[in-house]
Every structure is written in structure tokens, then in C-alpha cells.
Write a structure and sequence with these properties.
alpha+beta, PmbA/TldD fold, nine-stranded mixed beta sheet, 9 helices, 431 residues, 23% helix, 2 domains, 23 strands
């Protein structure tokens, strides 16, 4: 679909014609070229297209929304009428609003079309290299794709924002097997703007595959101790996402956020600086337009341990009276520390190198508990052996305060840049 701007303008007119005071729409069109490897063989090349249209209208403070996947006139007119009905049926809320007038803007990032020949060559190269380097590793499924996404936001205040992004994504899923011994399932993922290097060199893909071959003979751990958690970049991103969740609309509006009264005060060790950089060229992923209708900007969330910003949308800002965030979250970049990864390892008396955390969201007070998947027991400054059926628990706020080291090395996954981070005071227990 080519005329996103025209379709967006028609959406706004249709909702205004229904009698809505304020109206906004988000139109998203994507095309994905996907190359699949199943059971060790390249098996499929396909192209998929997707279009979605989200419409929101406000009448006397009452908000209605409708989402459809068609953009013809009749479908839009019908959706506008449904939006009006939904608004009339909702409760009034003075915090409901749309973004104010701002200059029109258009953004463009990444390749426009895939290099299909290079995609195939890189996939074949990856398959051949994996068989040589890790003969015990079984590639369950591997996906290499290229996605081009166009997005258009418009509202009745005259806001008109457009963006196009193109990027590659690579995701292998695997296990390892030696005789009767099998590792647990694992996966890795990365996004990139080009295919300049062999696929195993991006992110931590090669590390995760090597670890899978080591984990065929993982050990159960018995007992319980309080020790250190050395978080890999992937696992750190999970914990940073948990942190940002407490800064977002729902817990802030509800008043249950563990950080609700902490703006401008230390919430982590002094070495931790976390930023959200959605439009930065240094990340293959990211975004240019926020869901609430603004041009996305950088946000410093934590600076040298001090909380600098909540992650509130326009609605959250109106509801709480606190500043709206220029970013909608994600695209996280954690600044490097002063220690090497090896120095962090050598400083651990007893703990877990946690590569994947499997657990629900923390409770309202920040308590978390989950399984340390594909992880390692550490003792006396060394990575001792891979473990299974090991649980870790702690408190997120305490964990941030207990950070003892941040690595100089960082990993670019395409949608974040993360170091290794060492923190203490975590409870580890096995069977």
C-alpha cells in the first residue's frame, strides 16, 4: 500500500464526521522476506505483507478505539462509526487526549529492499560453519528475515508523522545432544542493518551455541545460599525492562510503583546509567514515532544511579501530573563500566552466571523469583559448571543497589546495547 498519508487523512475526516471531538489514527504497513532453516536444511523462502489501522476518538472525555486490517473507504467509515459507539459507551476521563500540533516530519532508516542472494549465502555459511564448529548442536529452526515497516500517525490537531525502517533479523533455536545427554532448549536473536559479517558473529549467537554444547552435562544444584548474580547482556535487558515497567503508566497511576517517589534520588549503584534511544542510528531497530503521537526522543532513565525520568505517556502524564517521557521505552543502552568481563568473573566468591531468566513479572514491591535457564554455577572466581533446576530470587530495587561491577565490553543486539552486570544479595536454591 503506497498512500498511507491519504488513508490516514481519510480516517481523521471520517471520525470527525461522526462527531468526535478529537481523533487520531496509526497506520502500519510491513513486508517481510523470510528465509527458514528447519531440521538442519534451508527449507523455505516466503514474503508476507501485513497492514493494520488503529483509530481512536474522544468525545467529551470519553475514549473509543477500533483496530482493523483493511483500509478501503467502506471499512474505514464502518470503523469510524464503531469508534464513536465505543466512545459513547466508555467512562469520561479528563486525562484522555491526543498530541498537540507539531511540525510534520518524515523519517527513514535502513535498507529499502533485501539482498536475497546474500541472505541465502549467509544462511548456508552459518549452517556449514555450525556443523563444523559444534557437531553435537542441533539447529531446530533458524529464521533470517528482512522487514520493511512504514508507519503513519495523524490526528485532528494537524499532527502528521511518517517513518520507514528496514532491518534484518536473525534467530536460531537449538539444543545439543551427546549420547543420552541433552541440553535444554536455547535461542538467540539479533537485528542488523546489513549482512556485512558472518551471522554467528552478531550479538552473542556464537557464545550461546558454544554454551549449549557445554550444557549437555549440566548438574543439579542442591541447597541454598545468598550470593552474586552475573547477568549476561540478554538477561540484563530483561531486568532493565522490569525496571522500566515500574516507571510506566499503570503502576505510576495506581500508585504502586516502587520508584513513584524516587525521581532525582539514587535508585541504583553510582555506576549504572541507562538510556532509551529509539531514534539513534547506532541501533538497527528502534522507532521514530511514539504510540501517543510524538516524535521519539532520547530519554536518560538512570544516570550514575540516580533516577532521572519516569516512562509516562501523554495519558500517564495527564493522569499523574508528572512529565511525559520523550521515549516510549525500549531501545535501551546501558553505558559501559570500568571492569572487564573476566575481572567480574574473578571477583565472584559464589554465585550464578545467569544467561536466561524464566519467571513472571516481579510483584508490586519488586520481589522476583524464577528459574536460571542455560546458566552456570560460579565459585572462587571461576565459572565452575552448567546447572539445571536452579531458582534465583531477590528484590529488584535491592538488586540495583547491590550492583558491584559493570563490564567495559558490551553487546549490540540491534534493539539494545548491554554490558555484563554483577550484583549481590540474590538467593540461589536448587532441589
Amino acid at each position: 500500500m503506497d498512500d498511507l498519508a491519504g488513508r490516514a487523512a481519510f480516517c481523521i475526516r471520517s471520525m470527525k464526521d461522526e462527531g468526535l471531538d478529537r481523533a487520531e489514527c496509526v497506520l502500519r504497513a510491513s513486508r517481510t522476506h523470510e528465509l527458514n532453516l528447519d531440521a538442519g536444511e534451508i527449507s523455505l523462502l516466503r514474503t508476507t505483507e501485513d497492514i493494520s489501522l488503529s483509530m481512536t476518538g474522544i468525545l467529551d472525555g470519553r475514549e473509543g478505539t477500533t483496530s482493523i486490517n483493511r483500509t478501503d473507504d467502506a471499512s474505514i467509515l464502518e470503523a469510524a462509526a464503531v469508534t464513536m459507539l465505543n466512545a459513547c459507551a466508555s467512562e469520561p476521563d479528563t486525562a484522555n487526549d491526543i498530541s498537540p500540533a507539531q511540525p510534520p516530519a518524515s523519517f527513514d532508516k535502513g535498507p529499502e529492499e533485501p539482498d536475497l542472494e546474500t541472505m541465502y549465502d549467509r544462511m548456508r555459511e552459518f549452517l556449514d560453519r555450525t556443523r563444523r564448529a559444534y557437531p553435537s548442536l542441533i539447529l531446530e529452526q533458524v529464521i533470517l528475515d528482512f522487514t520493511s515497516v512504514r508507519k503513519h500517525y495523524a490526528n485532528s490537531n494537524g499532527v502528521d508523522l511518517a517513518s520507514r525502517r528496514g532491518f534484518y533479523s536473525f534467530s536460531p533455536m537449538f539444543t545439543s545432544k551427546e549420547g543420552a545427554d541433552t541440553s535444554s532448549f536455547n535461542y538467540a536473536g539479533v537485528s542488523m542493518s546489513g549482512l556485512d559479517r558472518e551471522l554467528h558473529l552478531y550479538g552473542t549467537i556464537d557464545d550461546r551455541m558454544r554454551e549449549s554444547t557445554e550444557q549437555v552435562r549440566s548438574r543439579e544444584f542442591s541447597g541454598k545460599f545468598t550470593g552474586d548474580l552475573l547477568m549476561t547482556p540478554e538477561c540484563l535487558e530483561d531486568f532493565m525492562d522490569m525496571t522500566c515497567m515500574y516507571l510506566s503508566d499503570y503502576p505510576m497511576i495506581k500508585g504502586t510503583s516502587i520508584f513513584r517517589d524516587s525521581l532525582g534520588t539514587p535508585v541504583a549503584s553510582p555506576g549504572l546509567t541507562v538510556r532509551s534511544r529509539p531514534s539513534w542510528e547506532g541501533l538497527a531497530q528502534g522507532y521514530f514515532i511514539t504510540p501517543d503521537g510524538f516524535t521519539a526522543g532520547d530519554t536518560t532513565i538512570i544516570e550514575d544511579g540516580v533516577l532521572r525520568s519516569f516512562m509516562l505517556s501523554l495519558y500517564g502524564s495527564n493522569k499523574t501530573g508528572k512529565d511525559r517521557s520523550a521515549s516510549s521505552g525500549g531501545a535501551l543502552v546501558v553505558e559501559p563500566g570500568e571492569s572487564s568481563y573476566r575481572e567480574l568473573v574473578s571477583s565472584v566468591k559464589r554465585g550464578i552466571l545467569i544467561c536466561r531468566f524464566s519467571g513472571g513479572m516481579p510483584s508490586e514491591n519488586g520481589d522476583f523469583s524464577g528459574v536460571a535457564k542455560n546458566s552456570y554455577y560460579m565459585e572462587d572466581g571461576k565459572i565452575a559448571y552448567p546447572v539445571r533446576e536452579v531458582m534465583v530470587s531477590g528484590n529488584l530495587r535491592s538488586l540495583l543497589k547491590e550492583i558491584r561491577g559493570i563490564s567495559r565490553e558490551r553487546v549490540d543486539s540491534g534493539d539494545s546495547i548491554m554490558p555484563w552486570v554483577l550484583a549481590g544479595g540474590v538467593t540461589v536454591f536448587g532441589k
